[in-house]
Amino acid sequence: MESRNPAFRGNAFGGQGGGYGAPPPQQLQDMYDAPSYTPPAQRTMTYDDVVIRGFMSLGALVVAGALTWAFVPVPTALAIAVVAFVLQLGIGLFISFSGKANAPLVLTFSAVYGVGVGAISHYYETLYNGIVFQAVVGTALAFAAVLAVHSLKIIRVTPKLARFVVAAGLALVALMLVNLVVGIFNDSGIGIRESGPLGIAFSVIAILVGCFFLLLDFDSIEQGVRAGAPEKFAWYCAFGLTLSLVWIYLEILRLLSYFRE
Length: 261
What we know:
Elements: H1 25-33, H2 47-71, H3 77-98, H4 103-127, H5 131-151, H6 159-183, H7 197-227, H8 233-258
């Protein structure tokens, strides 16, 4: 019996379609002639992307630090700083090991870090007038110096150098943790955070390691732009720059305090 549905006629079951469910010859030819599928082009990272996101990250840190300075009383500043630094460490480790650096995560990291930086800066400023401005100037000079070293290729970043810097950074953090634990039973800890020669030497080494981390950041940015890294990689670069700059700032702040006592 003939079907009454016209959809089952002609092209659908043969007729001029040429086969069960096959499209017409012209349609088939058009399909063959069509260009192959290409995924939509993804914009690659540029130096401007890193600069913009870097300013956004540092801006979030400065705003959070300024608000903390204005509204957190000095007697509670150190406690607030400890809590903020612990939270910042957790967020930072998540970004580092997951590789998921995006705007919400990096800006949250910067804001939380800013709370700690603002609290500790306010505390030091009450003890030593003008020390925060000096530390900011010192950090800016360190940034400019490392940028010049990188631009002039005075020090070339190699895998061996990168491994050494990371190992040195982990060693410094481990010593800080040991000093913190020992400080529970002994006020001076192991002496690396006191104003004597050992404390000064430790801070100088920490500043140098921070500068080398900054050098690694510059190299990572350059390699990312050359390799055509995706635009979102700029947030990871901004995260690294913020981390390195604050590291340098805090160590300069502590080093300056040794000469004010």
